[in-house]
Amino acid sequence: MTAPIHIERNGHRTWIKWHRGRRRLSDPVFTGERIIDAMRLGASVEVDLVIHADDGCAVLHDLDLDRETTGSGKVRDTGADTLRQLHLRDDEGRPIAEKVMLLEDLCALLAREGVHPDALLQLDFKEDLQALTPQVVANFGKSVAPIAGSLILSGGDFDAIAMLAKAVPGIATGYDPCYGESLARLRATGDYRGFIEQALVTAPDARMIYLAYDIILAAEDAGVDIVAPVHAAGRRVDAWTINRITPQTIAQIERLLRLKVDQITTDDPEGLAKAIRQ
């Protein structure tokens, strides 16, 4: 089938982002095979980063090892050599053949295998400014330098993102203001315009604003388009995350396309592309 890369609708292109390196819902997360697949095809793909004991980053979502890997304890207390020996787990908790990757391993792999000029790898940093040390920042810069032009660095603490970005001149950055009970707070206050204006001020250098899709749709229900001001500021919008493709989520995706979001994050890129074609 045609690779799930983007959707053209009324003259606007919306990219389909492969969440945690998945091409289809049945894929395990963060495997080198799928990430290479995406980057060779020219897709948008996302992985998460957490800091390990040797002042580098592991390609994992959780701060603890137990759920995602065959290890236990905190990633922050585990060294690089130990992490590389751990196996990833699938959605059912079963160990798989693929092992945990470190950021430098992933970047070296992509530099060796080659990437499509349109490909974009999002590095979503899951920690905050307090977790950063000068050595972590230096190691980050060294790791990503070979493929920096194909990367966008994102996170919910833009001070941390800005500090990491200083080690990689020219790297694109993104900001996610959706944390905690943000949707509940917004529904209570109704201040969707203030929310998006504050996001743009907080992250003046962010090229992409990552917004929970239900916040985008709740704003529209309240009569507010929060995508338009991001575009007016010369930025782009990613709507996250469509986990499964169902009649309900297809209707939501159609609304997001009408609002002209620039990217939709999903765990099932093939399923999304197929549903839109049909």
TrEMBL record:
<protein>
    <submittedName>
        <fullName>Glycerophosphodiester phosphodiesterase</fullName>
    </submittedName>
</protein>
<dbReference type="InterPro" id="IPR017946">
    <property type="entry name" value="PLC-like_Pdiesterase_TIM-brl"/>
</dbReference>
<feature type="domain" description="GP-PDE">
    <location>
        <begin position="14"/>
        <end position="276"/>
    </location>
</feature>
<dbReference type="GO" id="GO:0006629">
    <property type="term" value="P:lipid metabolic process"/>
</dbReference>
<dbReference type="InterPro" id="IPR030395">
    <property type="entry name" value="GP_PDE_dom"/>
</dbReference>
<dbReference type="Pfam" id="PF03009">
    <property type="entry name" value="GDPD"/>
</dbReference>
<dbReference type="GO" id="GO:0008081">
    <property type="term" value="F:phosphoric diester hydrolase activity"/>
</dbReference>
